[in-house]
Design brief:
Structural class: alpha/beta
Shape: globular
Distance between the termini: 18 Å
Helix content: 10-25%
Largest sheet: 7 strands, mixed
Number of strands: 20
Strand content: 25-35%
């Protein structure tokens, strides 16, 4: 079938906080080097929730209606001129990251820092970059990463958040045999547990302020999981001898979590900041005295293909994190469920 520019598809469009609508949007024609993908599964991310609940995060605010969604999987429905390696019916995970390829950071091998990045479902630029929570999208062929037939599309939709965590692990350096702290046990925190274990971590301890996600952390292999709301001093023993953790992954974006991680990191330990939040006052003397390294971790690039391979080859198991799949017409219900951390970890929309 030839896709015409006038074709319309249903999409989940955010207009303002708590104003999420299922609307019809036009689908562009498939051009050279592009493919059309029939989206089947889309995972609701923390940033999607920020747009839904608050209209944005930090200085990033909605200025116009925007299709949400960047954790995507589906099947190729049409290929454009010059496309090889893909065919209609091929299952794919869709990489939502489209760097320009020619700015100074792209040329330096840091495409995640691209000066002209177009990342699906992002209000960081105006006009906003529309997301992929739609029945069908058109993307560059390189963004459609094939997955084997035996891999489910709900599994494939985990490739993007897993890639975020694989990039964070790469920022930390070797984890082989190391003692690891993960603060925050939402989807990213739990995927960090999976990624860190895959990277050879010796011991993984998780903290949160809710019991339900901590139970999930224990179920997927965390050695210990502490509820700091019920036991604020649970990490105190790990502050002995100037700290016991080699690496801390901070996945919540909470200033309190950042500050709690510093005393329990050993001298020359590494704090990888994955979660995004507001400003925090840091104890500089403590950082200097213990020679702590703070490293930001933002998005991913080559890790997306690695995430697809890990999922496809069964090297990681993401299925325990999938709480529910709701159809597009129940998008508001799906977002409300995803926002309730006592009832869900990862909620997906279905576009079938």
């Amino acid at each position: 079938m030839t896709v015409q520019a006038s074709d319309e598809v249903r999409a989940a469009v955010i207009h303002a906080p708590r104003d999420l609508r299922v609307e019809r949007r036009a689908l562009a024609a498939v051009g050279p080097g592009q493919v059309a993908v029939k989206i089947t599964n889309g995972g609701i991310c923390g940033s999607d929730l920020h747009y839904y609940l608050h209209g944005g995060f930090g200085t990033v605010r909605l200025k116009e209606p925007m299709v949400l969604g960047h954790e995507l999987a589906g099947t190729v429905s049409e290929i454009g001129a010059g496309v090889t390696g893909l065919a209609p019916g091929q299952k794919v995970a869709v990489n939502p990251s489209l760097p320009c390829g020619h700015c100074r950071y792209c040329l330096a091998g840091l495409p995640q820092q691209c000066l002209d990045m177009r990342f699906y479902g992002s209000a960081m630029r105006t006009p906003h970059v529309q997301g992929g929570f739609a029945e069908r999208i058109v993307c560059m062929a390189a963004q459609a990463v094939p997955i084997p037939d035996h891999v489910s599309l709900e599994q494939a939709a985990f490739a993007e958040p897993l890639a975020v965590c694989l990039h964070a692990v790469s920022r930390a350096g070797s984890l082989l045999g190391k003692r690891i702290l993960v603060t925050g046990s939402g989807p990213i925190g739990l995927l960090l547990v999976i990624a860190a274990r895959r990277a050879g971590a010796g011991e993984i301890i998780v903290t949160d302020i809710r019991e339900a996600p901590l139970a999930k952390a224990r179920a997927i292999g965390a050695d210990h999981a502490f509820n700091l709301s019920a036991d604020p001093d649970a990490l105190a023993p790990y502050a002995a001898n100037k700290g016991e953790f080699d690496v801390a992954f901070e996945a919540s974006g909470s200033p309190a979590a950042i500050l709690a991680a510093l005393p329990v990191l050993r001298p020359q330990g590494v704090l990888v900041q994955v979660g995004q939040g507001g400003e925090v006052a840091l104890p500089i003397s403590g950082l200097v005295g213990k020679e702590i390294e703070m490293r930001g971790s933002f998005r991913f690039h080559p890790e997306f293909a690695t995430a697809v391979r890990f999922i496809s080859e069964g090297l990681v198991d993401v299925t325990p994190l999938l709480s529910a799949i709701l159809p597009l017409e129940r998008a508001v219900e799906a977002f409300d469920l995803a926002a309730d951390k006592d009832r869900s970890v990862k909620v997906q929309l279905s576009f079938d």
